[in-house]
Write a structure and sequence with these properties.
With 220 residues, the protein is of the alpha/beta class. The chain has a single domain, classed as Rossmann fold, CATH 3.40.50.300. The chain is built from seven helices and seven strands. Strands 1, 2, 3, 4, 5, 6 and 7 form a seven-stranded mixed β-sheet that branches. The chain is globular. The mean pLDDT is 94. Bound molecules: guanosine-5'-triphosphate and magnesium ion (MG). Magnesium ion binds next to helix 1.
């Protein structure tokens, strides 16, 4: 009888961070980490600055309590730009105001806080991005927050610094009385050039959504 049912889990993933930190490239690699060298070069060189929402989906079957659960990651990638560069360019706030009504944006399963390890200002901005997620009420009891120091091929971040940032994020979350504990905050160093951390990040995200995403049952 159990064989007749198909189990699903789905969850939205939102990468947040300043422009040029690697949100679009990283999301494309997380959707498909098994890229050839040629495909990787293409992604790195041809991914353009975002002026619109980018939506990427991928599915995988994960065993949860002996049941195969078809788990779908939905990435919603926004432009990192907050200021208008010209009358034709669009900003994060403008694009979000169009897509704000998306049901998938009501509750976010995984929030990626991305900064570029070579630019300190992108780390400083994370407070603004986190505040934004709080104001939007994206964080609920089943949200996982992952700090992603990206571009580690260019510079190695110190583990002590990362631990300090994670505890600052936790204090910030606790100050805002959000219903998540310290186990909901992780960090994974990444490089979209060497692919450091990409498989680890994907595993963490997919397992989190399989276990804590929005579950459903259908008939096979
Ligand atoms: N060296 C290095 N370059 C990277 C890495 N990740 C991304 N890049 C490059 O950084 C640039 C910006 O990457 P994007 O993914 O477009 O950045 P974004 O955060 O989406 O930027 P916006 O769309 O402006 O918000 C591109 O030229 C990428 O090829 C990385 O890990 N290492
Ligand atoms: Mg982008």
């Amino acid at each position: 009888m159990a064989d007749e049912f198909k189990h699903y889990a789905t969850g939205s993933v939102i990468p947040l961070g300043d422009g040029f930190t690697g949100k679009s490239v990283l999301s494309r690699l997380l959707i498909n980490p098994d890229v050839s060298d040629e495909e990787l070069n293409d992604i790195l060189l041809k991914t353009k600055k975002s002026y619109n929402i980018e939506i990427e989906f991928s599915s995988e079957i994960v065993e949860v309590e002996n049941l195969p659960v078809t788990t779908t990651l939905q990435f919603y990638v926004f432009p990192g730009q907050r200021q208008k560069a010209s009358s034709r360019s669009t900003t994060f706030d403008e694009i979000l105001s169009v897509f704000d009504c998306f049901p998938a944006l009501l509750r976010v399963s995984v929030l990626l806080l991305i900064y570029d390890v070579t630019r300190f200002s992108t780390l400083e901005s994370l407070e603004v991005w986190l505040r934004f997620a709080i104001v939007k009420e994206w964080i609920y009891e089943d949200t996982l927050i992952i700090l992603v120091p990206n571009k580690t091929d260019l510079e190695k971040p110190k583990q002590t610094d990362i631990d300090q940032i994670v505890s600052t994020i936790y204090e910030y979350i606790a100050d805002h009385n959000l219903p998540i504990d310290v186990n909901h905050i992780k960090s994974v160093n990444s490089s979209c050039v060497t692919l450091e951390g990409i498989n680890e990040l994907r595993e963490i995200i997919i397992n989190w959504i399989a276990h804590r995403g929005i579950r459903g049952v259908g008939i096979k």
